[in-house]
Design goal:
alpha+beta, six-stranded antiparallel sheet
Amino acid sequence: MKNPFRRLIYKRYGSIKGFMLAETVIAAAILATMVGAYMTFYASVKRNFVETEYDYVALNLCRNILEWGASADMVHGINQKYYYAPATSRTVPDVMYPPYGSCCAGWPNHCGYFPYTGYGLKETACATADYGPFGSLGDIKAKGLVPKGAPNSVVISILAMPDQNYYNAVNVVSSVQWQDTTDGPVKTFLMSTIPLSQHNDQLHLQISAFSWE
């Protein structure tokens, strides 16, 4: 009894060898497509993991700077920036606080920049070099707290402004900027404390609601 499948193979390919060649080519094409898709998926997962991994580090750096500012005993504000490259000028603006006016005009030795290479305090306004959160932070590159793809791209800032409604109180903003790769986009985390006036307004509303109930 003749095999109808064998007759179909002979009719289409002329021989079993022709069928095996076509089958091999098709299988190779399918395998190549699957490998390409897997490699693309793997590269995407790896990239997202690396980015997510440093997001966590940057978030904690930002939070640590904010916590320092919120707990520090300051009668006036400060404005400081921490990064890797040598500073060529002071770009952080002066901190104005009434009734004294300009901080840098009153205390010029509290404002300046530092032209050295390596992570550290590079610009300061309203604070000497030994004051602020960056002395205890140290060299984040030596500690491994930098993105692997762009280890010199991290910029950390703190701005503490006096709260005009409350004596000896400041509102603090901290930020961390970085790149995951040298040609990648700049990413930023920004955190701030709640001003006392806003906090007290919220508390007043809560007390009013409680009294009404």
